[in-house]
Design a protein that fits this description.
The first copy, chain A, is mainly alpha-helical. Chain A is about 65% helix and about 5% strand. A two-stranded antiparallel ribbon of chain A has the order 1-2. Chain A has a two-stranded parallel sheet with strand order 3-4.
């Protein structure tokens, strides 16, 4: 976890305090269920909750000090709770194994993290939609291979991003369901010493599904799918970030990350405004992707479990969720305040002297009865002049001055082929598909 | 693609012939839709389908020869088709761009590949279920950290695998939906020269969804999610493969990959039977996982597309699907014919002289009124003798010979604590959860 | 292996014929050493080499047919050789294990592949050097964050690439040494049935080092290092490819991949010239990088070996080397024929009206006795006008028209600060460092 | 960075204090060189060093507070230093760019980290050597595929690990050289405003090489190679960790991680001793490997630099080095104190009733004049009895009771073939190769 790439709500999920609180809730709910089943006295559960209602502070240092002696984190925690609650606490954890607490806690944490990530996506979607509507018909050049192709609108670019992050939202919802399961099934998952009804009770109270069959642990294919999904979301972040970086290049400059009025780009070079936020997002995406493979390698635990996954998850569970949360929020801010320059978009689109309409003129000539070969030749000989002038000449004007062309097409007909509207007649259709 | 790790049905999807056939169908369906819209003559579509009904062979070499000249694969294909069909073929591809054909074709191929993979999983699930039912109550030791913990059944191990691959099936179905979309939207996705109804028609005919908003290409977050899912499935394969490899170790030998009666393990060492199939699966899983990151890196294409994804997909689309298909089938064969040795399972479980029941005796003494401290001491002093004898002594017998123990527990009571059935009382519950 | 991304020399290394030939040489050299030690008759080695000198064709199908029966590739090969050579062949392979042959063969193949890759790098370096010298003083703008910063030369860009690929060469030489080892040490590496002198003889004959201690196999950390190195080289390829892609963007267009005179960029859009080769290289780099992780996962084989690495290597040994060879050659071709447009470079550098010199004027004013605060204000008020004019105004001219500026600096002094030569005074130094 | 997987010396390299101290040294050395060149007053350098000799505390909070205003970390640092040193400090950083400081600082940090890692390896090598010598002739079974093959010694296993980590040491030394370079070359690497002699001076003072050609930054192929090397070392750690985990399995139990006399394996299951340290190492290896791909993706920065690498390095530079340092130290501790059970090794080797010697008897019969076919049959009919008895019968005894065998071999001759020494005759040779 790198503090500068962290936001407080997500970070809070991964603090020792938060973890111990979830542990307590799991233990207290389980004790409650055991009491209902007559396995432990009802007073035990009551005592736990009575203490909990006092909203007690969690003394992490005290628990750590006990762990330094016992070398066992869950036992240390239980010991500390017993010191606070008193004699009734000895009925906690009956028939359970440490992994029941650890894995169910991780499920709660990842579910909460998912909720934040989904909310992040919702915020991003709202901003994307607003800016897409705003620029629904702002003309800009579509580029394939980095080369001018044919016109699109800036709103279409954002609509594509909206659709992509809508898919990411769906994937995150599925990823949340993958990991939001509860296992209270004992040392090797057989419920030998704990009734399955305890698991059902805890699951219901925590808003988790019951894990159908666990070993000592919840199977790690679930977590692998979760982190793989985060890697996909990160890749979509990178895509939009790279788009902004390209648009802000000096030679393109069709959009820019927001610069506050008094802000300095560089103390030495006053002309500089760098797309540092989206470059940063590009790097953060690499990190979130980098956590996918360790998560995949965590699946093949030996027999009913080995503990090799544990150290991996101590890194990637906080790091992947905190980083992705930060990245989504940063991207939302970038899009929200993105400075968009329609005039520059138009200027760039025009820089090739109207060559981007060459295909349409070609088709018009054909439809006017000129053979395809001749049509191609007529367009090309004018297009090449434009090309060689580096856009100083205008294709439209050259065509109008070419008698062979005007023999087939009137000036008005030529102008019609240079109409951007032709390219935008289905923007409504696409927007309706994307935004409903 | 490595031939020895390939099966014909999946490989067939990725041949040039298969690709060209899909291309033709896309073009013919599109021409049909264009004819319905009055853009091209109805005769054009009729001519295409009439030729197609002759079930013509695809002359890949001829198409390649044309490509060697035109340097463009789709144009080469269209040229060859025109040579076969005649004049009416000139109406094909009207208003479309090459990516419309290429990406929609890839969608068809990945959808077909998904269908095979899902069928593979179904076959694996059927075998897992059969073997799980067969060994539902076959006792075996549960191991955490590779160390004996408490008893499970061999059927429970397979039930866990069944549940895991059921999740994989769900994921594959979702992954199929991710990639099964059709885009016929023109050079930069604006439908400038092709009506969206053409796309809808082709999609319906090919069983694909319509891509809501494409650029020049179908967005690659879809494919990233697809290949990430394959990586998760591969990891689950590795998990079960590693389980078998462990069970076949000389010292464990609780199960073995099938050996035909006359088969030789080694010409030099007649005692050898190696788990080569599951070792092989472990390696294949690494490969399928290795394709995830390139797929994630393919997402951030520049603007409306760059073509960097294309070479990646020429490798990973065949390699990942062919390898995973082979691996699933191989795993199914391994489980189907797995030699299971319940006697050895029992023998291994017994090798520690009944120590695996120490916890239960401890609890029984406590419930019989002995203090927890004394109970622990009584069990431990007998357990240590067993431990030091390397399992030659029996905990049960030692306890019965310990007067302090028998003062609290009768021999019958002691025997009761060594009852395996205690651990299996919820096997039915778990099986019902898994198999319904 | 994707045929279109393969070149014949590298591909030839990985054919069955090539493999079998290396197997034969290993076996024949070993038999020779065994004969020298008196373990087998000298006639055995003589017979093998006598047959070999006839330059016999390797009948792969026949060997495969034997393997289909024996289920063992090395035994199948030995059987076939025995059929050709006759009775003396029965002394081959004495005391050896299959892995001795397989792993030593892989070492030979990877060493040969390294030699090709190193030659590829040499060719690339030669081209980089030539183009760097050619454009040693071709002015072009240096960009950080994609934004104009200060001037560099195009030759400096290529010198950087030269230095980077020189490092890659050094790494490849080290990677070759990592894998070029020979192991002829028997079933578990103890030389129980084969004298270490056999290994030494074979190693010397094949130009390999002796593996100091093998298990059944050569340890896979060597191969991991090899493939990791290939991943680094691929990343450097990507870097230069991305540079070219950026330079070819429509708005930048400072360089272009070569287009032959008659070549068409697009049948529909005659203005298009796409950097498809470097985009392709970007994708190929992803693939070569993707093979690194499987190679790393191959290291932790169980005990004296498990065979999980084998399937991985059947994919990545050919695929990584063939792809990298192709990519290096393609990159060499791109740089060799790269169309470079110095005029456009100058034009782009000028597009901001000389703002790139603002820092130098600031320093000159300061040195002329104006306070730093005043200097900054004077430069800034003129720079902002240039900025707002989108480069239509000239900073140089505005400064000369600003009385407060000219009070401190003469027109000649102002001109001096706009001298590009100032930035290039150390180009010789850098070139000397890089090219010696 | 996860505190529990961190050691203080390595962590100290990555603190803000450590970073600021290196920054100061770079700036002060540069100022010194500038003074020598007459660019700045000699008093400026003197003032800086005079202050530094007071061993001043670095007030990180104060610097952070300035950065919160300036939004620029290097400027914030320079401002704070100026506040401490006074007027002479204004000559610092003359002609330099922030990356000169940042990248050279990273080089110093990675070089220091490398030194710790190399020392870690040295400690591990010393322990491996000691334990290898100790068990040079401790017989244990060699296993391929997890199945008994032929005898090795436990010392040979450790010698192999020694050789592997010796290679890792060589690789780390090379990786250190990759990253230990200094760049003081200005905004785009042209030395426009700073003389190359400044760079040479700083490099010499800091023990770094001069970067031959930098852009705005030191090229990231260097760092990619560094982190890739760390990934290889991590994989070798995993290999040895997995070996220990296998040896500690209940059924094998040939070695164990150290357990202190009073330690409890489990409060509930007193028979448990889990290989938790080596399982942990397995997970840590996954993490260090996971950082390789982001480092590779960092290479292809845009033009003279973009800043996407920066966030990646904020994670992986500390995390990869801290984790690997911890892992190497933990592995050293595991091997140092590893409990080795030669009796159990012998017992496991014997569990197959001497079948591991079947190959040698076969050869002896052949050499005694029995045909190979008859020899195979004679050995096999006795071997099968042993196999079916699960090792209860002894091959040696059965052979001696088989008249057809004893007709060819005397009892003494049979015994000779069961001599382990046969397998160990070249242990000295191998040890000499490895340890010199």
């Amino acid at each position: 976890m790198v503090p500068r790439y962290s936001r407080p709500d997500m970070t809070a999920i991964w603090t020792p305090e938060a973890r111990f609180k979830i542990w307590f809730e799991i233990e207290a709910h389980a004790t409650e269920a055991l009491a209902d089943l007559g396995v432990v006295p009802k007073e035990a559960a009551d005592a736990l909750w009575a203490w909990w209602r006092t909203n007690p502070a969690i003394d992490v240092d005290a628990i750590d000090a006990i762990e330094a002696v016992t070398k066992h984190d869950v036992i240390a925690f239980l010991t500390w709770v017993a010191e606070q609650v008193g004699d009734q606490a000895r009925f906690m954890h009956q028939g359970m194994t440490s992994s029941d607490v650890l894995d169910t806690c991780l499920a709660v944490q990842l579910a909460r993290a998912s909720d934040i990530l989904i909310a992040d996506i919702d915020a991003l979607l709202a901003v994307l939609r607003r800016r897409a509507e705003e620029h629904k018909l702002t003309p800009t050049i579509g580029r394939s291979h980095g080369i001018h192709a044919e016109p699109v609108t800036f709103g279409l670019k954002l609509a594509e991003a909206y659709a992509e992050f809508s898919r990411c939202r769906t994937r995150l919802v599925a990823a949340r369901a993958e990991v939001a399961t509860c296992a209270i099934s004992g040392a090797v998952g057989t419920f030998a010493n704990v009734d399955p009804r305890v698991e059902a009770h805890v699951a219901a109270k925590l808003g988790l599904a019951v894990e159908p069959v666990s070993t000592q642990v919840i199977p790690r294919d679930r977590h692998a799918m979760f982190f793989a999904t985060l890697g996909v979301v990160a890749s979509s972040i990178e895509r939009l970030a790279v788009e902004v970086r390209h648009l802000q290049r000096t030679e393109v400059l069709e959009a820019e990350e927001y610069f506050s009025p008094g802000q300095k780009g560089s103390s030495a070079m006053p002309h500089k405004r760098n797309p540092v936020l989206t470059e940063n997002l590009t790097g953060l995406a690499r990190m979130v992707r980098g956590y996918v493979t360790p998560a995949l390698e965590n699946v093949a635990l030996w027999h009913e479990r080995d503990i090799s996954h544990s150290s991996v998850e101590r890194y990637i569970a906080p790091d992947a969720t905190i980083t992705l949360d930060f990245a989504l929020a940063r991207l939302t801010g970038v899009i929200d305040k993105l400075l968009v320059y329609p005039e520059r978009m138009q200027k760039n689109m025009d820089r090739m002297g109207g060559l981007i309409h060459s295909q349409r003129v070609l088709l018009a000539l054909t439809q006017a009865g000129v053979s395809r070969e001749d049509s191609y030749r007529l367009v090309q000989r004018n297009a090449m002049k434009v090309w060689e002038s580096d856009g100083a000449l205008s294709l439209n004007e050259l065509l109008k001055a070419d008698a062979d062309v005007t023999a087939a097409l009137s000036p008005e007909a030529i102008d019609a082929e240079f109409d951007l509207g032709y390219h935008y007649k289905h923007v409504d259709t696409i927007f309706a598909r994307v935004f409903g």
